[in-house]
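chain below, 355 aa
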Amino acid sequence: MRGTLHQLETRRPGRDQPSVEFTHLSGGVKRGGKCIGGLGHESPERISGRIIRMRLSGRLWRVGGGLIEKIAASGRAARRVRQVPVRQTDTPAHPYHCRNARRLEAMSSTTLDPAALADSIKEWGRELGFQQVGITGVELGEHEAHLERWLAAGYHGEMDYMAAHGSKRSHPEQLVPGTLRVVSLRMDYLPGDTRMAEQLAQPEKAYVSRYALGRDYHKLIRKRLQQLAERVQQVIGPFGFRAFVDSAPVLEKAVAQQAGLGWIGKNTLVLNRKAGSWFFLGELFVDIELPVDEPTARDHCGSCHACLDICPTEAFVGERVLDARRCISYLTIELKGPIPVELRSKIGNLSLIHI
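prediction:
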């Protein structure tokens, strides 16, 4: 692929003249090595009058008469801020600069290509550090009934928030009106060189959960979800979205299963054949009708029930049914009062509750 290199030049008082390069590659526009918009195969004169969204201080730009003028973010009725000349050269662009060029060309046309956008969202998600990205609708089916049965049995203990919010937890479109799709993302947190078994065999040391050894995952993942949404915005313009990371009533495990990220194991966790259950989940609610992925229908647990047998507090009352009131995570995080005496010896190393 080859394209035309456009260089926008501006001059700031007291500074050397800076330049910003935009690589026109089959519809892709690049700044700093990132594809951020589409101009098609047309020259600045032929796209005169169009408004192009570019990642330049969050502004929109209008092309006209060989000039690109920056306009305010309010759109077509915006006032003129500044004009800079557009200078064309014959310098070819390297294909590496825009791997998503063909997809962006499709998305820069009059009609948005949802499939191309979905593919790009997945690739951008991986570039942001997510190991897997899937897309599902807002119908969670059997997962809602399972939640209602679990709550009716009182297995949520003191976690009153699990019963709050009515049906919003199992209906994304009620939690965020206008939601059409949920983008589910997986980020692994288990390092490859860990020696967990060796460390757990040392009773004189306190245990800290693996997920808590790094930066606060709520802040880290939420920031990257925001970056993903902004990247989509740079291509298609403003759209409705909201990011979640353990921050609202979302059935994230159900969403992940339906988005194809894994299956619900007998221990109630989402299991992935590559990552086990050692990963975080984040969600991006969007009002774009993207194609959905096939849910993970196969149960790879088979006849294995090792996770049920090894639970020291016998918190599982059946396959995929957890009595949180006996779960170590609940007892050391959610329970406001003292840990029941009959469960203390079953937990093992209690140093972790003093950290």
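The first helix runs from residue 101 to 107. The longest strand covers residues 80-88.
thats it, cya
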